[in-house]
């Protein structure tokens, strides 16, 4: 059976407006619209206080002011929004290299094999949301599921500052209860056409056969047919080249015994080797990461003459780096190992790269 992905969709809450309210306390708690400041302008976004009056993004300022006469128009500062977006993406990349930005304020993350943190996508989403807030003082909402469509649809359910998790065995019920206009990819016009056909919910859409959907919606018919059945095989496509492959573990109790550290590193190195083999990459620089009980962090690295990825090549180097580390009976709360200075498969032709142990 094909392994299901673990996908998180992160969507910042009223991103531009929230930044303006963060940076200008006088705007907090007030209805604001970000964009042009003239009545002929168009809003880029609106704060949640403004949305209560029906003010929305892409709405002409004149109409927005009619809906909310006390709306405060704020000029956009895209240089600031881009800087904050870069901060947020750096947080994403701590957990996975598979990050697909959709805009400055939202992205898909594939955390099937996270670089750090718990294996649970739900716990990772909560951890990421916490780090985003601690770093930027901004909230975000998250959808967690096994494919991109459901994750993105779910992220809109508990806004602002919420999370919605849809497990594989919950997907059909989740989708069937969904109003048709809530399906990502079904816009206002398409939703109206579907209602004219008697399709008002996911349950109604699931009853429509493929030929009927193709007849009325062309190529999009197959997309609608699949998504209501929870089928979406699109991968998360990252625009950033992988720079390292690693794994780390935070221990429930701090450790100070060198032998126990070596044993823990044994499993960590196996995981690094497995991930390197899966990505068909090898690296010349091996790095040991140590975080002490007082949260002080150090790294020790060694660059080898040839790229490696096998357990038997990595472990001696990591053990050597551990011996060189200034431990001095200090307690350790985290250990990690990584490969960098990576070589792609096409760069490894003709080189002897050992295969990891069979049990990995």
Q: How is this structure best described in words?
A:
The protein is α+β, with helices and mostly antiparallel strands and 360 residues long. The chain has helices at residues 15-23, 48-51, 61-67, 78-95, 121-136, 148-155, 171-176, 188-196, 202-207, 210-217, 220-227, 258-278, 311-324; strands at residues 7-12, 32-35, 43-46, 72-75, 99-103, 106-110, 140-145, 163-165, 244-255, 282-292, 297-308, 332-343. The chain has a five-stranded mixed beta sheet with strand order 5-6-1-7-8. It has a four-stranded antiparallel beta sheet with strand order 9-12-10-11, with helices on one face. Strands 3-2-4 form a three-stranded mixed beta sheet. Strand 2 and strand 3 form a beta hairpin. Helix 10 crosses helix 11 (220-227).
Tell me the strand order in the biggest sheet: 5-6-1-7-8
How many beta-strand runs? 12
**Helix-strand string:** EHEEHHEHEEHEHEHHHHHEHEEHE
| Count of helix runs | 13
**Average predicted confidence as pLDDT:** 89
Q: How would you characterize the largest beta sheet?
A: 5 strands, mixed
User: Cα distance, first to last residue?
Assistant: 19 Å
Question: What tags apply to this protein structure?
Answer:
360 residues; alpha+beta; 13 helices; 12 strands; globular
Write a short abstract of this structure.
By secondary structure, the chain is α+β, with helices and mostly antiparallel strands. Helices cover 37% and strands 23% of the residues.
């Amino acid at each position: 059976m094909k392994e299901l992905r673990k996908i998180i969709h992160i969507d910042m809450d009223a991103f531009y407006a929230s930044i303006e309210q963060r940076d200008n306390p006088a705007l907090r708690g007030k209805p604001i619209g970000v964009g042009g400041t003239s009545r002929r302008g168009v809003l880029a976004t609106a704060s949640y206080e403004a949305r209560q009056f029906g003010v929305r993004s892409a709405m002409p300022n004149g109409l927005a002011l009619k809906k909310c006469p006390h709306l405060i128009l704020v000029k956009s500062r895209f240089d600031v929004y881009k800087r904050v977006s870069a901060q947020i993406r750096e947080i994403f990349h701590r957990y996975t290299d598979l990050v697909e930005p959709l805009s400055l304020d939202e992205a898909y993350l594939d955390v099937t094999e996270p670089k750090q943190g718990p294996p649970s996508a739900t716990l990772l989403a909560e951890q990421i949301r916490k780090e985003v807030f601690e770093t930027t003082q901004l909230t975000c909402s998250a959808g967690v599921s096994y494919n991109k469509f459901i994750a993105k649809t779910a992220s809109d359910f508990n806004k602002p500052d919420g999370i919605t998790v849809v497990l594989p065995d919950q997907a059909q019920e989740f989708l069937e209860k969904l109003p048709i206009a809530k399906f990502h990819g079904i816009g206002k016009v398409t939703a109206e056409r579907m209602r004219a056909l008697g399709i008002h919910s996911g349950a109604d859409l699931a009853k429509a056969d493929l030929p009927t959907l193709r007849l009325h919606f062309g190529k999009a018919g197959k997309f609608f047919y699949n998504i209501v059945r929870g089928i979406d095989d699109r991968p998360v496509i990252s625009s950033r080249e992988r720079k390292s492959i690693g794994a780390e573990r935070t221990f429930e109790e701090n450790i100070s015994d060198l032998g126990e550290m070596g044993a823990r590193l044994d499993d960590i190195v196996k995981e690094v080797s497995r991930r390197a083999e899966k990505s068909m990459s090898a690296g010349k620089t091996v790095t040991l990461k140590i975080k002490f009980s007082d949260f002080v962090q150090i790294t020790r690295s060694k660059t080898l003459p040839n790229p490696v990825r096998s357990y038997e090549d990595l472990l001696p180097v990591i053990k050597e780096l551990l011996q060189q580390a200034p431990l001095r009976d200090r307690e350790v709360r985290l250990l990690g190992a990584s490969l960098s200075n990576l070589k792609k498969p096409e760069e490894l032709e003709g080189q002897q790269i050992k295969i990891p142990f069979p049990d990995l």
